[in-house]
Design a protein that fits this description.
74 residues; alpha+beta; elongated; 38% helix; 3 helices
């Protein structure tokens, strides 16, 4: 098992790297969407946040997502 980054385009998931799979091989996927700051109302999140959530809202979800990606690569 490993993490593979992919982009969704025209109905297909396109991995960012070549996969060592045989043609026609089946795989199981767990799909986790990347945080997209355009989809979030940061002001609303900040109003209802406390503790760590408040810090994340103040920094913006874009920064938070980048930090998580850095930790994963770490």
């Amino acid at each position: 098992m490993r993490v593979i980054h992919a982009r969704y385009d025209e109905g297909l998931l396109k991995p960012t790297e070549r996969l060592a799979l045989r043609r026609g091989e089946w795989v199981d996927l767990i799909l986790v969407r990347k945080a997209d700051p355009k989809r979030w109302n940061l002001s609303r999140l900040a109003e209802h946040a406390n503790g760590e959530d408040a810090v994340l809202a103040e920094q913006g979800l874009g920064n938070w997502a980048s930090d998580l990606d850095d930790e994963d690569r770490g």
